[in-house]
Specification:
The chain has helices spanning 3-18, 28-42, 49-58, 73-84, 89-101, 116-127, 131-144, 162-167, 172-178, 190-214. The protein is mostly helical. Bound molecules: adenosine-5'-diphosphate (ADP) and nickel (II) ion (NI). Residues 25, 103, 125, 129, 134, 137-138, 141-142, 168, 172, 175 line the site of adenosine-5'-diphosphate. Residues 27-130 form the HD domain. It comes from Chitinophaga jiangningensis.
Length: 218
């Protein structure tokens, strides 16, 4: 078997095992979609496909939210795994940086690290939060937190602080205005931007229907 393929197959097995008990928002199928999307975007960009695939597959193996906010657990676990495969050190370091910096809120240069490969995986991860899948994930999350679908009396709050966001108990529709509809302007790659535009338009159409149905108008 080709070496690249063998590395990816071993990584898929490892990630499935690591995520066996993951919560719904970050289960194996989130990884699967991000991986497929990252490959799709990488086909249109000059990039190291092995780094892109490993970054996508390993980006959520240990979410700091569930590990006392420790941002280094994910990179460390992924690093140990990649060392067991004896991958080149520059590949290991690059993938660890992707895992470290993928969820940083800032744009390219505020991160302290940026590469095309990071941009691709980050775009793929953001795409999974918008469009049809993004809508499903948002309502799944809201249901898990026992939140209302919508409340016409509760306005969205833009630019919530991190602390405020943690305690935010607003209806799920508000999340569209606070986060999901803002993602299309944060995309890194040309293909990512195009895909985000389509998914964005779909969410806007979805919201129009939602409000019309809410008021018995359609
Ligand atoms: P990620 O780890 O992908 O950066 P999060 O862990 O914040 O993102 O969110 C995972 C999923 O849950 C995403 O689809 C996101 O839109 C959704 N989500 C996060 N916070 C909320 C919220 N307050 N209301 C509804 N959905 C949310
Ligand atoms: Ni993710």
């Amino acid at each position: 078997m080709e070496q690249h393929q063998e590395i990816i197959e071993t990584t898929v097995k490892f990630v499935k095992q690591e995520l066996a008990n993951a919560e719904g928002g970050h289960d194996w199928w989130h990884i699967y979609r991000v991986w497929k999307q990252a490959r799709h975007i990488a086909a249109t960009e000059q990039s190291d496909l092995l780094v892109v695939e490993l970054g996508a597959l390993l980006h959520d193996i240990a979410d700091s939210k569930f590990h006392g906010g420790d941002e280094e657990i994910g990179p460390a676990r992924a690093g140990a795994f990649m060392e067991s495969l004896a991958l080149p050190q520059h590949v290991i370091d690059h993938v660890k940086n992707i895992i470290r910096y993928i969820s940083f809120k800032g744009g390219h240069n505020e991160n302290g690290f940026y590469s095309t490969e990071l941009g691709i995986v980050q775009d793929a991860d953001r795409l999974d939060a918008i469009g049809a899948i993004g809508i499903a994930r948002a309502f799944n999350y809201g249901g898990f937190k026992n939140r209302a679908l919508y409340d016409p009396g509760v306005a969205p709050v833009l630019n919530r602080s991190k602390e405020d966001y943690k305690h935010n108990n607003a209806p799920t529709i508000n999340h569209f205005y606070e986060k999901l509809l803002l993602l299309k302007d944060k995309m890194n790659t040309t293909t990512g931007k195009q895909l985000a535009e389509e998914r964005h338009a779909f969410m806007e159409q979805y919201l129009q229907h939602f409000y019309a149905e809410w008021e018995g108008e359609m």
